[in-house]
Amino acid sequence: MKVAKLIAVLVGAGVIAGAAQAQQTGTLKKVKDTGTITLGVRDSSIPFSYLDDKQSYQGYSIDLCMKIVSAVQKELGLTSLNVRMNPVTSATRIPLMANGTVDLECGSTTNNLERQKQVAFAPTTFVTANRLLAKKSSNIKSLADMKGKTIVSTSGTSNLKQITTLNGEQNLGMNIMAAKDHAEGFLMVETGRAVAFAMDDILLASLAASSKAPNDYTITTEALSVEPYGIMLRRDDPEFKKVVDAAITNVFKSGDITRIYNKWFMSAIPPKGVNLNVPMSAPLKAAIAKPTDSGDPTAYAAK
Amino acid sequence: MNYNWNWRIFWEASPDGMGTYMDTLWSGLVWTLATALSAWIMALVLGAIVGTIRTMPNRAAARVADGYIELFRNIPLLVQMFLWYFVMPELVPEALGNWLKSRPDAAFVTAVICLGFFTSSRVAVQVSAGINALPRGQKMAGTALGLTLPQTYRHVLLPMAFRIVIPPLTSEFLNIIKNSAVALTIGLMELTARARSMQEFSFQVFEAFTAATLIYIVVNVIVVNLMRFIEKRVAVPGFITTGTAGAGGH
């Protein structure tokens, strides 16, 4: 079905190729008709998309979305383009995208195969992984070092599930605790009730950076899982996706990405002026060198 | 509308290790029912006691009961949930607080206690209204027969009052089931929380919430019929009319 559709589109494209530029459809047409593009933004996904102390939305994903917005404006030949910021939550982002309220979702949404049945993703712009945070003094380099020790993760997360599975598979005999939220999980390591905290590395970095003694902690280099984040758009809108993909690819190729990345991950960010200090990971470097919107974690395996 | 419907999603494996998405929702329903039923028993017992005290001739006792009702009725349920879960463990002695926080079923226990107290204040109001709805002569007749005040309540007033308030109590029973969804904010994985996690994993948001809606409706239809059955069974011929569940809610 999908293949047939694709072939039809390709054949159609071939027919029109010689002709003048085709009529715009989908999101591009909507943006052109209304003169407005709407971004779905999050209010607390630091540093991807959040409200700062001046009540304006900003972050890494929003900067990248603005690059897409300029590309769309150029594509449509508009002299001005209104950008509307529409707050979304994890529960509302899909319905609002489906019913046309938001055109791009600029947050920290994981791209996976399951979700690609419902939405499309721009090329991956961040790769996070399930890693361990521990005190430097406890000398934890990998999960194997945790044999027989106490580990904590946040209840209801895939991270906790993975730790439980690995504990059984590798006979580590770890004592696994579930914290009710990320802050409590970090507190358990801080107070010594647990040796390590297993969570998405970017969340760990942000917890460590805003703690009392950021230099006391280290995050393991061993990645237990891989989760690519991408900017989300509607499915079955090849015209719009082409513009989005080209815009992100241009940011990657021009080296702009390094500046944007460093702005949010390697320097002080509002509102508190905390520096997350997360250097670009190998999987992300690979995804920037060869842009991909794959939802398969194996595509990001550190080379 | 650019949405990819997939009603077969319920038979697909869910990544939370519960089996299929259907199993995920089912386990949520079990938690919803466990929470609602436990809290309902607590609410009925407390509400009956407080509601009765409120109608007693002793002014001081009635004042205390009034205070209890106002306390639990005037604070939004969501706020109460947070107070019980995050604030209460900090106010009790530290050892007890730590024990509370480390219990694996802390969210469930907290949700039951919170819903129980919240709903008990509403039940208390209805019970006292039921008692006050009885003709004043009932109480006088009871005492004239030589019954003590507790005996008058036990044998004359309460049996009548409870029959009167079955319809509004039905609404409260339905409310407690719906209100149990608030417990997802403290991490109880009940039905609504499960529907949310299903949409989080699969992005099939409309299917997830359609299923949750239908399940809530079925449960509530069962409850309404159960309460009607009880109402008919305990009806005293010629006392009050039967078979109309009052419209309630908030």
From TrEMBL, chain A:
Extract the CDD domains matched here.
Answer: PBP2_GltI_DEBP
Per the record, the GO terms for biological process are: amino acid transport
Question: Which Pfam families does the UniProt entry name for this protein?
Answer: SBP_bac_3
Main localization of the protein? periplasm
State the SMART domains in the record. PBPb
Task: Pinpoint the Solute-binding protein family 3/N-terminal domain residues.
Answer: 36-268
Q: Does the keyword Signal apply?
A: yes
Q: Which UniProt keywords apply?
A: Amino-acid transport, Periplasm, Signal, Transport
Q: Would you say which domain of life the source belongs to?
A: Bacteria
Point out the signal peptide segment: 1-22
Q: One GO CC term of this entry?
A: outer membrane-bounded periplasmic space
Identification of the protein by name = Amino acid ABC transporter substrate-binding protein
Automatic annotation (TrEMBL), chain B:
**What's its membrane topology?**
Multi-pass membrane protein
Main localization of the protein described in the UniProt heading? membrane
Cellular compartment(s): Cell inner membrane; Cell membrane
Among CDD domains, the record links this protein to: TM_PBP2
Keywords in alphabetical order, please: Cell membrane, Membrane, Transmembrane, Transmembrane helix, Transport
Report the transmembrane regions from the record. Answer: 28-50, 71-87, 107-131, 205-227
Query: Which PROSITE patterns does this UniProt record tie to the protein?
Result: ABC_TM1
Q: Where is the ABC transmembrane type-1 domain?
A: 29-227
Q: Gene Ontology cellular component? A: ATP-binding cassette (ABC) transporter complex
Q: Name one GO molecular function term.
A: transmembrane transporter activity
Q: Which InterPro entries match?
A: AA_ABC_transptr_permease_3TM, ArtM/GltK/GlnP/TcyL/YhdX-like, MetI-like, MetI-like_sf
Q: Which Pfam families match?
A: BPD_transp_1
Which GO biological process annotations does it have?
A: amino acid transport
- UniProt family annotation: Belongs to the binding-protein-dependent transport system permease family. HisMQ subfamily.
Q: Which PANTHER family match?
A: GLUTAMATE_ASPARTATE IMPORT PERMEASE PROTEIN GLTJ, MEMBRANE COMPONENT OF AMINO ACID ABC TRANSPORTER
Record's protein name: Amino acid ABC transporter permease
- State the taxonomy lineage: Bacteria, Pseudomonadati, Pseudomonadota, Betaproteobacteria, Burkholderiales
